[in-house]
Each structure stands twice: as structure tokens, then as C-alpha cells.
Amino acid sequence: MKIQRVNESINIKRSVENGTEKQRLVVKDIISRIKAEGDLALKELTEKFDGCRLDSLLVLTEEIEEAYSLVDEKLVAIIQEAAENIRSYHEKQVRNSWMTTSENGTMLGQKVTPLDSVGVYVPGGTAAYPSSVLMNVMPAKVAGVKRIVMVSPPGQDGKLPAGVLVAAKEAGVTEIYKVGGAQAVAALAYGTETVQSVDKIVGPGNIYVALAKREVFGDVDIDMIAGPSEIAILADETARAHEVAADLLSQAEHDELACSVLVTTSERLAEEVALEVEKQLAVLPRKAIAGKSIENFGAIYLAETIDEAAETINKIAPEHLEVVTKNPIEMLGKIRHAGAIFLGRYSSEPVGDYFAGPNHVLPTNGTARFSSPLNIDDFQKKSSIIMYSQQALKENQEKIAAFARLEGLEAHARAVEARFNKE
Question: Whole-angstrom Cα distance, residue 229 to residue 251?
């Protein structure tokens, strides 16, 4: 990994989520087909892209029961414990409806209502992601969403991974469909004979899934357009090089476009981490992917002071941030922009990926400057409540009418005055 001073240009943004013109046209064509042909198009596209012919798109009860028989009981227990940790954390985010009253009879408030339905996309292909199921479903469940639909591309055997099905059952998914890609997003947005449409679509996916989510946004809501994974580590001389290197590689193995950055005040640590990354990379099972990630998007930045290091982190606004310093909690006030902040040597990033409880669906590509992790608010909506008494309106009618006329809206003014004008 290249070592450079922080005063050099820092830019880790990768606008891959925009896709190519060809990819955008493919997605638009798929969405059009789903709208026009429904289930027929879903099955044909699943056969084309996933290599399996399906009789039924819906995952049946027997398939879920079979999944439990295939997953070791200890792993089922781990999934259950992780689900409980995630539930417990998100329960603390729940907002309640509220109301206030004034002496003149005014009543103002906010009504919090869960969404009616949510679709959760879970990536498939060569990997299985039970953690993605839990992180997307549990906050929706805690928020009170009644209908939670999961879609995921099947393997060539026409089945979904057993771990994914177990996680879905434990999390409380109400419907599961064996379909993926842009066609799954379109089905969730517009519905087919089998798949009823939803109000919001969440969950990660490849570039075609990302483009499809962008295309249907407005007809339904979406969580975010997530880019490749990122980790930044803020460290001083107390950090251990082999641990820092291991954590950098934990994100590099995700994707060739993943980004792994160390910002440190210690030149010794910088040099040792650079050597450790190469050493550990050589024996990593996914070294081809991780190697390209480190080569193209890996970096080590040297800062003169810890404050300069913290400000560098704020410029990067990483998805994941580990703070491995002598007093990590003291650094918390200096960090303004990061999706998730892991404090101390023992808070390795995978702790958050799988088990601790906070959501691992995080803003990427610098969007932590203005975005938050997936949370309860993403699955609820708010309605304002306004109730004026006769006294309250009488006291304020002239002010309201004057404001309306300032904007040239005479009918607005007269609507208020009509309550007091004699017929």
C-alpha cells in the first residue's frame, strides 16, 4: 500500500452506481417487460440470468423446513442471537406519536405510522448473506411493518441458500420469492400476478439492482443507492499492525472496488501495516479480489497530529470507521462524518457486520456527510396533526390572511376569514 501525507489529494469516490448507458437501457427494458408480462417475464428472465426454470416463484413452507434441517443447530442459535441483538438495538430508536395543547384550544402533534409493506432484496449468486436479511428485516419488523417481502436470486437448483431462509424465518419475513436482479426490483415496485407490489424497497445488490432501484424511485421509496464497501482506520502508535492490516483486508475482500484506508500519526505503524497487508494478502482465499481493491483503492495517510488525522477522516466520510488510539472515546467528538464508528482495539468491523446490533446498511461513497445508517425511521412515516379552536383561529386570522395576501393568494386569506364573516 502506498504511504502518503494527508496534504495530498484525497478522493475515494467511485461513481459506479451510475452505470453505463448500455446497463441503464437493459434495466429499463427489464422493467418494461415486468410491467407488461408479469410472472411470465419473471420466469423467463430468471431462466436467462440465473440458469433455472421455476414452476413456482414463491418459496414454500417445505423449503424453509428443509433449510432448518441443513443448517447446523449452533448456527441457527447464532442467527437467533444476532437477530435479538439487532432487535434490541433498533427498539431504542422507536419514535412515538405525540400531541401538545395550548390554553386557547390549539392542538398540534405528529402521528407516526409504519409503512404497510416493504420489499427486501438479498443478493445471491456465489455468496449467501443471512446478515443482510437480518439487518434489513429486523428494523422494519420493529417499526411495525406488517408485510415484509423478501426476494433473492435462486441457484441453478432453483433454491435459495439455507442460511438465508433460516434468517428470513427468524426475522419475520412474511413472503419469500425466488427472483433477483432488476426484474425482482420491478416486481416489487409494480407487482405481477404472484408478487404484490410494496411501498418501499431496501437492500443491496449489483449494478443492475442499483440502477433498477433508481429507476423505480418515486413510484416506491428506496433506502439508498449503495456503492462498494469502505473502511477507514484512524490509528496512533498504540495500534497493532497485524490487527489493522486484517481489518483493512476485511473490506477489501468484498469487492475489487472496495476501499480500505489507514490514517495514522505513526510512521512506524504505517510502514508495518503496509508490509502486513502484503503478507496477509498472500494467503487470503479471496486474494485476487482483495489484491485489486488494495492496489486501486487502498491507501495509508500520514498525519502530523491526531486532529489532522480526524479532519482527514471527516473529508473521507467513510462507511465504516475504526478508531484505534490510546483513548478512542476522546476522539468521538472530533468525528463528524462516518456511517458507523468502531471504538477501540476489540471493536473490529465484522462485529458490526454480524452481531453487535447496530445496522450494517450504511452510507457509502462520502454520503455519510448527510446520510444515516438504515434505521427505524426508514420504515415509518409521519403525519402532522393540526387542530385549531374557534378562539385560536380568531386570535390569528388576521396574521394568517396577511401572510396569504403577501404571497398573492387571496383565496387562502378568504378561506380563513369565511369562518367569521356574516352570511
Answer: 6
The catalytically annotated residue of 276, 319, 322, 349 is 319
Provide the sign of the torsion angle of the four alpha carbons 125, 50, 211, 171, taken in this order. Answer: negative
Q: Let me know if 320 is a catalytic residue.
A: yes
Grid cell at residue 211? 440502477
Catalytic option among 90, 230, 276, 320 = 320
pLDDT digits (tens, 9 = 90+) for 99-156: 999 999 999 999 999 999 999 999 986 567 999 999 999 999 999 999 999 999 999 9
Instruction: Judge whether 339 and 362 are in contact, CB under 8 Å.
Output: yes
pTM of the model: 0.92
412 belongs to the catalytic site: no
Rg over alpha carbons for the chain, rounded to the nearest Å, is: 25
pLDDT, tens only, 170-212: 999 999 999 999 999 999 999 999 999 999 999 999 899 999 9
